[in-house]
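Lab channel / #folding
Pinned by the channel admin:
"Please post every new chain as: sequence first, then the structure tokens as a reply. Keep commentary short and put observations after the output so the thread stays searchable."

First post following the new format, from NK:
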Amino acid sequence: MTAVLEAEVREARKVADAVARARDLTIRELHEPIEHRDAERLLGRVWRTGPASPPVSGDLMRALSHAGAYVAGAFLDGELVGVTAAFLANRPGSSAELHSHITGVLSEVRGRQVGWALKLHQRAWSLERGIESIAWTFDPLVRRNAYFNLTKLGAHVVSYLVDFYGEMADGVNAGQGSDRLLVRWPLRAPDVIAAAAGHHIETPVAAGATILDTDGDGRPRRLAMPDGPTIRCAVPADIEGMRLDDPALAQVWRMEVRTAFQEVLASGARVAGVTKDGWYVFTRERKNR
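Reply from TO:
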């Protein structure tokens, strides 16, 4: 390990520890079977599944932990309130990368930034092992997750994945498809180092050039493909509530956002970020005439 990387590892650990401490959290790896059973129950609560079909079983987390993968928990006053699990991805032609498969936080502690503390712990853990990037997927319709991943963490969108998991039967995703954005978090990039220290860069609101908007009834309103260098795409303010109150409308949003993303990405644009009020912003270079 070079002196520069050693210094970055120390700083990453220092930042992670400070964030957890400021929120009265303890973040640590889970190694014992009883801890993995507790983690299984927590994930079941978050995804509203029955005990027979948790999102990730305690047995699997036990195996991952024993094999040297990353399984960690966040504790508040000694109680488990968040869980995350990840494993090594080794793609041909690419350097080693951690794939973060799942992160769940109890809704009761959502305002405490448990997910932020878990992600910083995961970053420090990865850097300590010479892993310089982490990838994961998330539902592009969940606005708060999009802002957290792309703006607060500084992750970059790699691709849009249609029905990545196939049909899901949990209480969050059932009947809604499983489209995901794959993102990559380059752990040593200057913007990521700044974001980890709490200095993230907000994505500016792009005026005009809209491919998908919201009408007065909360329905998606499709517009023609813009021709400019900046494009924006709306998502619902609360897709999770909509899935409970109006699942048919939530499905319409899924299809419209899918089509918008596919068209814009196919045009050569990339996702530049997400604004605080929920607009995806795409940018593309103008072709020389």
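NK: The two ends are 48 Å apart (CA to CA).
TO: also worth noting, The helical segments are 3-22, 33-47, 58-66, 114-128, 143-152, 190-196, 239-245, 247-266.
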